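Regression test attached.
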Amino acid sequence: MTNETDSLLIVDSLEVTLSAGRASQALLAGIDLDLQPGQLLAIIGPNGAGKTSLLRTICGELAIAKGSIRVCNQPLPALTLRERARRIAVLPQLSGLNFPFSVEEVIALGRSPHDTGRDRDRAIVAQAMAEVDVLHLRDRLYTHLSGGEKQRVQLARVLAQVWPVDSQPRLLLLDEPLSALDLGHQQLLMRSLQTFCGRGLGVIMAVHDVNIASAYADRLLALKGGRCVAAGSAHAVVSAPVLKELFGVTMQILPRPGSGKPMAVGV
Amino acid sequence: MPSSRASGRGAALITEGLFESARHSTRDVRRRITAAVLVAALPVCFFLSLLLGSTELSAPEVFSALWFSSGDSQQDLIVTAIRLPRSLLAALIGAVLAICGAASQGLFRNPLADPSLIGVTAGASAGASLAIVFGGTLLAGAGGLWWISLGAFAGGIATVWLVYRLSTSSSGTSVASMLLAGIAITALAGSFTSLLSYLASNDLLRRISLWQMGGLDGANYPRVIAALLVATMMLAFIPRFSSALNALLLGESEAQHLGFDVARMQRWLIVLIAAGVGSSVALAGTISFVGLVVPHIVRLAIGADHRYLLPLSAAAGAVLLLMADTLARTVIAPAEIPVGLVTAVVGAPFFISLLRHRREYGMQP
């Protein structure tokens, strides 16, 4: 029973251009999206397809050339930085931090746009740490962690930022969150994202692994050259012709044991 | 969502909240200890700096000079007219240099970004020399100090801006280009100052070279008041950017996503750092490494959180410069060495040891 006004995010015929000097090059063209609270959307596509550009546009980092983006029924450019940060959290691909922050301090930064109070924030930070299995690292220095541990700490930071404290729907943008994680932590992350979606969080993630996208996402968006190749359910997007067009490889599609979701296997 | 689960979550949140607020991390304890040590050390060092010097005074004499000064006896004069303004100036300048160092390291997202290493001090010094040489009649009287400060501020702001532009891109600060830009600008400003020295008369030359060596021996109450104004400004404004600086350490776009206006913060901090370093150059000459050493030691003790780092660095900077100046005045008494030499003797080996651990600061091996 959803209509347009309930949407968390509406992207309407979006076009983004990269202007270098006089020449301008289209990064994204004709993108449409409608994300409801609680949905998990996965963006797939080859390198340079525009996955990161789309995420950066939704969080306001890249300017919109044509079309519009509305968050909670308000145009994105109308939101102040602070209002935006209270609704949208972003996990970037790389994060360099050279200062001796403890893990807990890094995660607590996720609460800085909010004013929920110190005790509440501490509790949220502790729960976010438990959610991505870094509670045992809380007093360690961030600079002394391994790559995968750093990735999980950054995840806990963005989870703390969009932690559900009221009925306000929030949006989490993840750019390749799984790249540095081992198999166990990949699954842990995807499960906890699903839990958060169950509590009204909207998630958009760019992923390389088509099978993870198919198994966990409610909807998929396949991009190539800045344009939408396919969009919709896993069955609609994870198909041999789409994958052939996206990646130029021939894959066989099998039903996943249990859920029956499509699974791509190399031939 | 089922309501029982929601209320269960809520209860968990409350109990966890109670548990969390009762928990004191080791960081909390260390912050308190460090603050207590500094609060105790500051008056002790201040008193020692009044007590020690080329003329031997006893503690009761210093006390009586401070509280019942008639201004007649020689001891009273030594304390109130010579040592007191000098100690006040040392404490204030130390605080300003340290808090500016901490802020600039946060701004550049690198613990090696000390204003004296990245050329700001040299730029301010060139600006001050320029103001001295071309000041003419403006140099006379009390207005001269403000004129020189203005020159130092202008030189400082130009260098911070230039170094920041050269070394920082959207992907972060390049340490190599930051330090190299600092070297280039220090060399440029140095040759510019030398050129000015050729043009300058004997009297001006002496003033310029005293600035370059650094010294608090020109301390008097007008300077103390100027330093007090600058220190108040730094302590009032820089800590307002604590949370933003914390977020900035994650990266520019990360700070933006956490709701901070990064461009505005950068503009403000560049102006504040240039004002702090520039006026301290104008008031006390070139005193290097305080902005590097102090925030680093404080960070080792309490971590990188700017909400605590900035004020505690200011306090530690005051303590350090008071100690360095007392040393500078007493080591070869009755003669004295410029305090800038003392801080450089301590600071340069410290910097070299930091370079040995450069991997930890995001530098290539």
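Expected vs. actual: identical. The mean pLDDT of chain A is 87.
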